[in-house]
User: Fold VWFD domain-containing protein from Vombatus ursinus.
Amino acid sequence: IGTDCVPPAQCGCTLEGRYYLAGETFWEGEDCQRFCHCDAFTHEVHCSNSSCGPGERCGTLKGILGCHPLVPSTCQILGQSQYITFDGKTYDFPGTCKYIFSELCGSLESLPFFRVEVKKEYRSNTPISVFSEVLVLINGTEIHLRRKNPGLIEVGLS
Assistant:
């Protein structure tokens, strides 16, 4: 299916006449009743009964059927030690540590794994801690932002 030739090992799967890439995951059914995965080795689609979680609804967003949050939310870092969580609570984390700022909680097949870590160090010759590094991990890819290299974003595999 398609116009490009690929080695058989790179072929995807078809379900009800629709082609899916090897490793692709997707929702099936108008109400997101099944969550499916195109097996990269067998080239077969495997589905399991599923449904959207609390605070989500099934629908099409940007052309993709899936479970989407009813109310989008954000978390923030303000200044050097103040954090606002997804539920709007404020916390202070002074000192020099590595913190997990945000990560996927539990095992939700419909969402890719992600984690955001922040590392703090003391600013030279002061008792003030500053962010020295932010690390974003998503689907096996690492994105590094380092204070010592402003404007440089390092991307690699974890």
Summary: The chain has a mean pLDDT of 85. The chain has two domains: 8-69, 76-157. The CA atoms of residues 112 and 139 lie 6 Å apart.
